[in-house]
Write a structure and sequence with these properties.
- With 325 residues, the chain is an alpha/beta fold.
- The chain has a single domain, classed as Alpha-Beta Barrel (TIM Barrel).
- 42% of the residues lie in helices and 13% in strands.
- It contains 11 helices and 8 strands.
- Helix 4 runs parallel beside helix 5.
- The radius of gyration is 20 Å and the shape is globular.
- Bound molecules: cobalt (II) ion (CO).
- Cobalt (II) ion binds next to strand 3.
Length: 325
């Protein structure tokens, strides 16, 4: 299945009253693992590169690997940039073939945030890419800024003046691990939803790690269709790697780092699967006819993968490396 537009995926969520997980990656082995896990439970997913890791994973490599994995997948996949740090960075993600980008101007003044987000929307839409904006600052494990929650009336003005397709809201949600139980302001969320109802804009919840299933379901009932997940996936991956090394204290095999990476990936996909079940996106791989071929193949991204040579059983290069051990 080719990639689908993020907004088409979110439209299907709204119609079916479920949310889709937007899963952050920090390595190029993760997109394929996340997509394969989603296929097992027949769930659509958004594979996300956060702007802060671009120095480790460049956009073109990420888009290439993810688009190729998506092409062979049996579930709808879209590619998203989260927390784009500058307009220039968002533009690079758009040109690399992402299907949606977030410009994060939440730390700017209201007017500056509107001005920059509007520019990001203009550029994104020119290239068929959806754009997410953020209004109201999120808390984090390090900073408590619950007084900066999204104001519904300002949200209406922000959406109207920027034309964003997706709005990230601050309703008590927080990045990283929560200090204690998170308290989400569902009344505020309902007010925001009502305020932006006249506009074609979807709501997203950042800081999904640590929110209970009950609260996810309430948030989805109030219109959240995209939930960002990262911390808990990393945490499970790390715990798996630590446990595996404790169980293999004398391990010196040549596959050492491969085995460790596999354990980390198992942790990532275990939490992804749990989320897809909580968000009720599992089993929602139905493809609306108008989603098929929604996103044209980007010819700039090079040859098909896996290559014809690698698929040929007589290919001489096959197994050369692994056969050494
Ligand atoms: Co976020």
């Amino acid at each position: 299945m080719p990639l689908v537009k993020t907004t088409d995926m979110l439209a299907a969520c709204l119609k079916g009253k479920y949310a889709v997980g937007a899963f952050n990656i920090n390595g190029l082995d993760q997109p394929k693992a996340l997509i394969e896990a989603a296929e097992k439970i027949k769930s659509p997913l958004i594979v996300v590169e956060p702007g802060v890791i671009e120095k480790y994973v460049n956009f073109e490599d990420f888009a290439l690997v993810t688009r190729r994995a998506a092409r062979d997948a049996g579930v709808p996949v879209s590619i998203h940039l989260s927390h784009g740090l500058s307009l220039e960075q968002c533009e690079r993600a758009v040109l690399a073939g992402f299907t949606s980008v977030m410009y994060d101007g939440s730390k700017l003044s209201f007017e500056e945030n509107i001005e920059n987000t509007r520019k990001a929307v203009e550029f994104g839409h020119k290239h068929g890419c959806a754009v997410e904006g953020e209004l109201g600052a999120l808390g984090s494990s390090f900073v408590d800024i619950t007084e900066t929650m999204t104001d519904p009336e300002k949200a209406r003005e922000f959406v109207e003046r920027t034309g964003v397709d997706i709005l990230a809201v601050s309703i008590g949600n927080s990045h990283g691990f929560y200090k204690g139980t998170p308290h989400l302001d569902f009344e505020r969320l309902a007010e925001i939803r009502k305020a932006i109802e006249p506009y074609p804009c979807y709501l997203t919840l950042h800081g999904g790690s640590g929110i209970s299933e009950e609260h996810f379901k309430k948030a989805i009932a109030e219109g959240i269709v995209k939930v960002c997940i990262y911390t808990e996936m990393c945490s499970e991956g790390r715990a798996n790697a630590i446990r595996w090394y404790a169980e293999h204290p004398d391990y010196t095999g040549n596959y050492d780092t491969c085995d460790m990476t596999a354990e980390i990936l198992k942790g990532f996909v275990a939490y992804e699967t749990k989320c897809a079940e909580m968000f009720e996106s599992a089993g929602r791989d139905e493809v609306l006819p108008d989603l098929l071929n929604a996103v044209p193949v980007n010819d700039r991204l090079g040859p098909e993968y896996p290559s014809a040579a690698a698929l040929n059983p007589d290919f001489k290069g096959k197994g050369i490396y692994w056969d050494k051990f």
